[in-house]
Amino acid sequence: MAVNAEKIAPPQDFEALRAAILERRRELPKRLVQVAAYALDNPDEIAFGTAASIAESAEVQPSTLVRFAQQFGFDGFSGLQQIFRARLKERTSSYEERLRTLEQNGAPLSESASIFNGFVAAAHRSLDALAGSVNAAAFEQAVEILAKAETIYLIAKRRSYPISSYMAYAFGKLKVKSALVGTSAGIDDDLLSFAGPRDAAFAVSFSPYASESAGQARALALRGVPVVSLTDSVFSPLAECSRVWFEVAEADHAGFRSLSASMAFAMALTVSIAEKRRRDAQERPG
Amino acid sequence: MAVNAEKIAPPQDFEALRAAILERRRELPKRLVQVAAYALDNPDEIAFGTAASIAESAEVQPSTLVRFAQQFGFDGFSGLQQIFRARLKERTSSYEERLRTLEQNGAPLSESASIFNGFVAAAHRSLDALAGSVNAAAFEQAVEILAKAETIYLIAKRRSYPISSYMAYAFGKLKVKSALVGTSAGIDDDLLSFAGPRDAAFAVSFSPYASESAGQARALALRGVPVVSLTDSVFSPLAECSRVWFEVAEADHAGFRSLSASMAFAMALTVSIAEKRRRDAQERPG
DNA sequence: GTCAACATGGAATGTTCGTTCTAAATGTGG
DNA sequence: CCACATTTAGAACGAACATTCCATGTTGAC
């Protein structure tokens, strides 16, 4: 009975435990910090491993794990492990898995239903890919370029036109001056002839690339108009004439792509630009 | 050495195991079927429980679990359990969780980056909601209505315009006759006056509803043109004049919505329609 | 420099685990 | 109804487990 143990109640879920670990991080002894770091970095290991195997991976003694758990109010290591296991149980199953369960339990899916599910799954994948491939610094730079432009010229044809048209709509609502290029044939080049270095352009083009879009973007770049672009491949002709460019690989279902991820990207960019303008205006009023 | 054991290799992943269990379901003895059912219904229990605890839940003896595992080529219960655990490990973590890890490890996210992540997360949520809310039978019905239409009239204004414009593009590629209503003011009503009962319309409208879209849809419905619609609320004026209608609740980030889920829906509908036409044409050539 | 308080490593311990084994039960073909 | 094969239940066993305990190491105050 030497230890005047603080009998605090142990965290009941993973989030609470995580918060508690983070909070007490600094006041913990060296080995316990080591365990803390390992636990938060390798939660799956904690969930599945045995005290001995985890101890070996984390390069501590099994007894250290027990002491760590006790520090946070658990009876022993097992109690702490329960939290890590519960976390995995509660985690909703992946979309594909839910799909399969659906097919399994009910009647076999009709063709339309499986096409529908295919597109939803593809959209999920696209969003994951988007999140993984977009560099935060590049995004920030793109926002800066476009936020300080007087007029934002939106260049898009064919498959990418819906993206720009939505951006044009949103920019209108957000009181950001923009011009949608690609609406009616003929007036496009006249419109673009107004663009100067104080403006900027956002070009979207997916394979098969509309050569017109690439040509317009190149012409603008030559005249000193900064160009930001969104495309689906590193080999896009747009990439070479752009200050900043992004690659978004839309997953396809049966050869057809939806624009789900591109839409999310476009809206994020649009709102970021408007938000940056708002803040800049606040800082330097006039 | 009495048992002339079939030394088949055990399944290496959960899917293979599942398939093997389903395949051999009928030839297994009673208690093993009992285990099989329990295992597929409560995979998480198998992953985390002990042989004893699982045996109690499944109302069999622990030894039965071992025999079950051996039936499928594993050395013992533990080998089988590994498969159930691997399944949980491989399951990618939820997007929100990955986000938090990102914020935690690196520097605090810039405003643009967090807006970006917010839209990606919102898009994921929207897709989940979409998958949950769209009724397979209704979708099938919508496909049927639109597939047998001579011309598909696409009605959309403002925020929903990008959806229809992409559908129009895709229909063009798929050789499905469609007309996009909402391009230039004035000619819309002239265009719609051609529509008859042998055609169909697909209307998209989100709040705040463009009264023009609702009016056009109602006019078509009165003239016997079947209308299918996509909207974001049960109270949409479109719903009442539509044969079939769908509700897609796009999650928003800071009050702004991207059209990610709607886009996925639109493409699924578009491709389903084209596919149905292709099959109908094959069955009744002429 | 000394001592107390705390942290750590590693062996010891009692428990629980998965597995094996055997006898009883159940089903099957003649 | 019997002989036989298969399936099952439950006890027995050895290995692996989480935990405890204590000697040793480390730190910081005085």
UniProtKB/TrEMBL annotation, chains A, B:
One Pfam family, please name it.
Answer: SIS
Residues covered by the SIS domain: 142-279
Q: Which residues form the HTH rpiR-type domain?
A: 15-91
Which keywords describe this protein according to UniProt? Answer: DNA-binding, Transcription, Transcription regulation
Superkingdom, according to UniProt? Bacteria
Among its keywords, does the record have Endoplasmic reticulum? no
On whether Transcription is a keyword of this UniProt record, the answer is yes
Q: What is this protein called?
A: Transcriptional regulator
Taxonomic source organism: Devosia nitrariae
